[in-house]
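Thread title: Can someone regenerate the structure for this chain?

I was given the following input by a collaborator and told the matching structure tokens would be attached. They weren't. Posting the sequence so someone can regenerate them.
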Amino acid sequence: MAKQLLFYDTPAAVNAARHGKMSVDLKGDYGFAREVNSVPIAAAEFALCAAEYPIVFAGEASAPVPSVILGLDGSKNAFVGADGKWLGTYLPAYIRRYPFVLSHQDDAGTQTLHVDEGCAGLNSKGKGEALFDGDKPSEYLQNVLKFQQDYHTQHQRTQAYAKRLAELELLKPMQANYTTPEGEKRTLQGFFTVDREKLKALDEAAVMEMFRTDELECTYLHLQSARNFATLAERVGKAAAKA
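Best answer:
Regenerated them for you:
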């Protein structure tokens, strides 16, 4: 699998022969996400994410990826504490699914559950949740697989929403201006936002279709979330002052 999964180092297909004696013990430690300043989110997460994170569209305008901004200082994540604890109220599903991930579908349409063998919490000492009960998946692993499958379904729905924004040409480049604790003015850019004027100019049929699919609600949640850049800058500033 390509290294396109942010904090996954060595994902390997889960199987009893290789992981039959393995357990996972994360202990609420999200240090693995410390150097990630944005992660993709699903449309179903917009309401919860908009309450505290800026929601933007990353990637290319032709294939946008809804994401939350988690930091402004390089690749640093402002929501991971020195002890690895998550400092935000809502933890995005992309991070919650770690250290597991489903592979892309093959030609037959099947998927394979992978685990990051570089995860510090993966162990053969019986600490945490066992992956297998004998040669059968444990209840924990079955629940993990269901979560991953649900996440994949939500991801597909989100892709449909992002595709609609692209087809309607509603996205425009965006930048966020902020001031460091030292008074230095900086700009974060390289992502997109919905153009309010183009949104208002949509014909009635397009608006009603977005309304029926809850895509209009997601769009306004995205626009409202821009106010969170100010609180994020304040969070980053406080963290820098303590360092």
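The radius of gyration is 20 Å.
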